[in-house]
Design brief:
The chain is α/β, with parallel strands linked by helices and 355 residues long. Helices cover 34% and strands 15% of the residues. It has twelve helices and twelve strands. The strands form three sheets. It has a five-stranded parallel sheet with strand order 7-6-5-8-9, with no helix packed on it. The longest helix has 22 residues, at 283-304. The protein is globular, with a radius of gyration of 20 Å. The model has no long low-confidence stretch (mean pLDDT 95). The structure holds phosphoric acid mono(formamide)ester. The site of phosphoric acid mono(formamide)ester has 8 residues, from α2.
Length: 355
């Protein structure tokens, strides 16, 4: 692997995505033959934020590979509740385990954890930033359900501002030839600027629209998302955005016969239950592909791992402009940026800061 850790999908080369999705397909066909592939290995799941699919599919994946699992699913039941820093928790747990899967409510937390870990860190979601293993899940789903990652018109609808699965998926699919993007959201919930920059730099055609019905006939894939209540500053703001987009049978009737509808789940009210019986609705199948994707990923990352702590990078005395960046809550972390003209891009959360 290009990196020991999986923070962003760009830590894997496209050849490695192909390798993992291909292995996931084989695991799906022959799951019992993979039992024992991780015998003697321990996976730690550190979930600072709620999860059903990601946490359970990682745990199931390790158990199906013959390994064992430790961890917490509620930081209130760990020493985090006593004020333990991310750095200390990671130093300790990386001494107990061979690989760590971490979800955290703050953007850049997984990257920060990787600085202090002796074992590979897998980002299972960092705030509204990224969720790369959901994207591996989505790629395995596309491979099965569409047979290609290219030449697709991809619609993404809902909370495109806070939807980390959306950000990771756009970054993955923008690199494949012939893909175009229709971003369906209210002006308030549009994708962040760095994602628009990414699309433009990749040369992928994209448009922002606010009407889902108009977009339906264009799409090969519709990726619906939940409005992320927990990321809003107030209940009032959330209520102003809730329920704007609902996919129902009437809208499905406007779509292509071979459209597929995906959703990372959980669903709230953005897909009506009558869509569940439409053969083009693939979101429950998608959750199962996630198990095979994570089994393949664990096999690859555990194989490559040897316990080591890398030297800490040197930081600079500049504060990231994003108040939701991990550098605000874990204040000892070195501040690291990439320079792009007169803009600094935060290495943790990717937000831009003007010099
Ligand atoms: N898709 C997803 O991340 O689901 P969970 O929040 O249940 O893990």
């Amino acid at each position: 692997m290009q990196s020991r850790h999986l923070i962003d999908l760009s830590d894997l080369s496209v050849a490695e995505w192909e390798e993992i999705t291909s292995l996931a397909c084989d695991i799906r066909e022959n799951i019992d033959s993979y039992y024992g592939a991780c015998r003697g290995k321990i996976l730690a799941t550190l979930f600072y934020e709620p999860s059903t699919r990601t946490q359970m599919s990682f745990q199931t994946a390790m158990l199906r590979l013959g390994g064992r699992i430790i961890g917490f699913d509620n930081p209130a039941n760990s020493s985090v509740a006593k004020g333990e820093s991310l750095k200390d928790t990671i130093r300790v747990v990386s001494g107990y385990s061979d690989i760590i899967v971490m979800r955290h409510p703050v953007a850049g937390a997984a990257k920060a954890a990787s600085l202090y870990s002796r074992v590979p860190i897998i980002n299972a979601g960092d705030g509204g930033h990224l969720h790369p293993t959901q994207t591996l899940t989505d790629l395995v789903t596309l491979r099965h359900e569409k047979g290609t990652f290219s030449g697709l018109c991809i619609g993404l609808c809902g909370d495109l501002k806070n939807g980390r699965t959306v950000h990771s998926l756009i970054k993955a699919l923008a690199g494949f030839p012939g893909n175009s993007f229709v971003l369906v959201s209210t002006p308030y919930l549009q994708v962040p600027g760095y994602i628009k920059d990414f699309l433009s730099a990749a040369g992928a055609p994209w448009q922002e629209v606010d009407n889902l019905a108009d977009a339906m006939p264009l799409l090969d894939i519709l990726y619906m998302t939940r409005i992320q209540r927990e990321r809003f500053a107030s209940e009032e703001e959330y209520m102003s955005q809730r329920g704007v987009y609902v996919l129902d049978s009437a809208k499905m009737s406007m779509a292509k016969k071979d459209l597929i509808v995906l959703h990372p789940l959980p669903r709230v009210d953005e897909i009506s239950v009558d869509v569940d019986d439409d053969p083009r609705a693939k979101y429950f199948e998608q959750t199962e592909y996630g198990l095979y994707a994570r089994m393949a990923l664990i096999m690859k990352m555990v194989k490559a791992s040897d316990k080591q702590l890398c030297p800490l990078p040197t930081g600079v005395d500049i504060q990231c402009s994003n108040p939701n960046c991990i550098t605000y809550s874990e204040t000892y972390i070195p501040h690291i940026f990439r320079k792009k003209g007169d803009i600094l891009v935060c290495d943790y959360c990717e937000e831009r800061t003007l010099l």
